[in-house]
Amino acid sequence: LQKELLKYKQEARNLQGIKVPSPQDALQQRLLQQDAAVLQLKQELLRANMDKEELHNQNVDLQRKVEERNRLLAEYKKELCQKDRHLQQQQTKLDEMLRQLSEASYQQVDLERELEHKEALLAHCMKREAEE
């Protein structure tokens, strides 16, 4: 009678759409959930690894750009030092030329005074000769 009662209860549940999960069904359901969770974790890990690889590639690219800019900066500094030395040389030459120009100007003033003096003497001599 008990077996029949269980059988009829099971039939009634089946007819009502209520299914009593067997231990095997529950275990299979739990395994499916775990598989889905593992699959989701694998997808997240794959995404994280892809993001990590992309960041690594960006880092390598940025490192390369920094090295290139540092190389260019060193070249510019070298060129700037050369131009500074050239400018210093030109400044020295300019200072020397200005000094020479100043000396020449003083000599010109002296020569002009001497010329005026000689012209005055010549005029005086010409005047005396004309009087004689």
TrEMBL record:
Coiled-coil stretches noted in the UniProt entry, renumbered to this chain: 38-114
Domain of life: Eukaryota
Statement: the UniProt record of this protein carries the keyword Cytoplasm: no
Xref: InterPro entries: Dsh/Dvl-rel
GO cellular component: a single term: cytosol
Swiss-Prot/TrEMBL keywords: Coiled coil
GO biological process, alphabetically ordered: canonical Wnt signaling pathway
PANTHER family: DIXIN, SEGMENT POLARITY PROTEIN DISHEVELLED
Entry protein name: DIXC1 protein
Higher taxonomy: Eukaryota, Metazoa, Chordata, Craniata, Vertebrata
